[in-house]
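Side project, low priority. Logging it here so it doesn't get lost.
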Amino acid sequence: MKHRSYSTLAATAGLALVLSACSSGGTSSGSGGGEPLTDGTFRYALQADPGALNPIMSGSAATAEISKLAYDSLVYQDPETSEFKPWLAEKWEETPTSASFTIREGVTCTDGSTLTAQTVANNINFVADPAKGSQQRGTTVPIGASAAADLATRTITVTTPTPTPFLLLTISRLPIMCDAGLEDPTASNNKSLGSGMFEVTEVSANDHYTFERRDGYSWGPDDTTSDTPGVPKTVIAVMAPNVSTAANQLLSGELSASPIAGPDKDRIDAANFASIDRPMPSGQMYFNQIASNPTSDPAVRKALIQAVNLDDLAEVITAGQGTRATSLVGVEPRACVYDSVTGNIPDYDLSAAKATLDAAGWTAGSDGKRSKDGKPLALRLFYAAGEDARSAAAELTQSAWSDLGATVEVTGADQNKVVDVMLSGKDNNQWDIAWIQINNSIPSGFVPFFTGPAPAAGKNFSSINNPAYEAAVAKASGLTGDAACTEWADAESQITKTVSAVPFANTTMSFYFNKAGLAFGKSFIGSALRLYQ
């Protein structure tokens, strides 16, 4: 087990921790080289439409990605060295139950207002309030957290009722909204109300989103300003779900940057473009445990994993560009590195899968289809579609489970529909098995998805009730350092042992740049974008 000693880093270097707003000093591996281009247009490919643009209300990964252009965070972290540097906060401190940030002076919002310590505290309290319905509650802002501001010292202090092992890390991930966006959360669905380098000026859903650079921006990572050479004047995020089309546009110069996977990588690599690699979860399987569903039966869940070759499934769903996942925590930089899968889920064995169902009373009829007490083994697999590889993986799984004796209905939907079905709480009986990626770099970020009430009142979309997991979480939450990681590994193992959630694939996503690059990090933070002649 590997562990990054965050507490030591924070104590000795005075550096804060951030989950996904990453950067590094100097030039990243994504540098495009050449002389900086003045006032150019940076076009990059989106694989999914973000829908509503409010980053603290939406659960969409596409919204989280695009929001980095327009919304800043408190600190940022180098994904290569784990070094932490100021952003909106110029300094910070942490204890097991609190984190404080001193907000730098001179930060302004897109509406001209000043971003103050009170604004930041209001963000945290907004997300913490369950009545607001923020999808960030329990993820970037722990349940029960509260924040208070001291305007005289420009400091906010976040406190939690119990020890929170990754408090700095989680709070630092929160995209900070300006006051107008908190007063009317719907106001930022089609415009930006943040302090970021860019402001959205045009929204054409399912086609493109246009952002323009803000004059006077001077608080970016590594002292980036709106006058830094190479910073684009305009950024256009273009829908490009087809990888081959995106590759063609990248080669022609129509796109400045795009993720490329699959067979198109060979011709892009031949062009010798600058690139960065970003590991991402691409296969996580969740099982609905509502009492009326067949997947509430532990034997059914076990048999379904036994019946499908996860090595083959990982190969198919990543189009040969990935590996088997060993943890739900798959986004770098990870707070803890451990294996919760090996030895905790059953091996692939179709005969053993059939025996598991036989022993549990799910018997096969003359047609091979199984039932129990007159109820057929009818399963609904729900997954986020959009790529041929995902559809092929769904078909492979459908075939494997059909061979087991189940009747399997497969439904693919776009990301916005998936988020709505899984997290809205309107009707949690639309699926039995779901493939949805929860992108997180800290194990505690999964707690709200595995505990508490079902989605009508929380995020527990699988209706999991696992006392062993809850006990391990309680133990882990009072610890720091390696001891905490050991307990978090045990907690996640309680989820995989019961086949409540099974991570099975990670993809290394390559992002390529044509006369463009990132000045730091691996995320499309507005102030990191650069164009070259």
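Brief comment: The two ends are 45 Å apart (CA to CA).
Revisit when time allows.
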